[in-house]
C-alpha cells in the first residue's frame, strides 16, 4: 500500500510540519478495526535518569560552564600571545592553573575539556577530572572533529566526527566525562543555504542521540557566526530557522530534551554592522527567539560569547536574567572567561595566584549575571575590549 502522506515544511522559519493530505480524508482513512500505534524509541537507554540529573546539576543557579576545549592548535595561538611555545607541557601548565583554582566551583558547574586534557593530571599526579569533582564541577568533553568544506554549498562548512563517536563516547564516560560538546557553525554572509542548515541540524541530532546513548549530556551548539554587516533582525530570522530545524531533527532522533543543554549564539547584529545593539535590545531579540523555538523541557541555555568582550558578554547575559525564564539562562564562555587570565599569567609561575584570582573575578561576574545582579562598575578597560576575529576557528 502506498504511503498516505508525505511531509512538507510550512516555511523556512517555522518548526511546524503538515501532511499534504488529511488523515481524515477517505483516501487515507485507516480501517476502524486496525488502529495504528506509534512506538517512540529512546536514544538514552538506561542513562535517562542520570542524564536528567547531570543536566540539572550543570544548570544550577548562579553557575555556568568554563570552556577550555580549544584544539592544540588554537591553544597554541593563545599561548603564543603571551610568548609561550605550543608544547604539551605548556598546555598542561595553563590548564592546571585554570582547573585547580580554589573556589571555582562556587561559580562554575561544568568544564568542557579537550581530549588531551581529559586524560591529563596535575604535576602532583592528581587527575584533572578529580580536581573538577572536588569543586563539584562536572567534567565535559569536546567530541567533534572540526569543520570541513561542505560540497554543494555556498562556501559553507559541515562538522565531522560521527564516525566512531559511540566508542569514543563510551571511553570518555569511563574516564569521568559526563557531558559532551559538538560545535557546528552557520554563516549568514554565506546564505545560509538550506543544505548547510539541514546538515548542521542533522549532525547535531545524531551526535546528541549517540551521546545520550553513552551516558553523556549533549550540548547542542549551532553557532551563528558574528561575521557580517547584517542587522539584528536578520540574525533573528536565521536563528529561528536554524533552531526550528535543530529541534525537528532532535525529535526525529528521539533525543530526551530533559537531558540536553543548548549553547546558542546571542541574537546580535553582525560584527561589522554600523550600529551596535544595547544589552537590553540583544536580550529582547534573543529571548524572543528562544521562546519561539526552545521547549521548556530543556533545562539550560548556556550562551557562547562568540568574540564579544568580557564585559559585553556579561552585560548581555545579565539583561536576559532581569525576569524569570522557562530555562536556566547562563554562560559557556571560553575567551570571555580566559582573556584576562592569560594576560595576568604571562606564563610565569609567580603570577599563577593572581591569574587564578582573575579567573574568579570573571566567573563571579558571570555568576551574578546569571542571577540578574551584575553591574559593570569598576570593570577594567582591558575587559571591555572586543575579541571578535573574522573567520575564527577553534
TrEMBL record:
Tell me the InterPro entries matching this sequence: Aldolase_I_AS, Aldolase_TIM, FBA_I
Keyword entries, A-Z: Glycolysis, Lyase, Schiff base
Query: Which reactions does this protein catalyse?
Result: beta-D-fructose 1,6-bisphosphate = D-glyceraldehyde 3-phosphate + dihydroxyacetone phosphate
Q: Which SUPFAM superfamilies does the protein's record reference?
A: Aldolase (SSF51569)
Report the domain of life of the source organism. Eukaryota
What residues form the membrane-spanning segments? none
Q: Pathway listed for it? A: Carbohydrate degradation; glycolysis; D-glyceraldehyde 3-phosphate and glycerone phosphate from D-glucose: step 4/4
Q: What is this protein called?
A: Fructose-bisphosphate aldolase
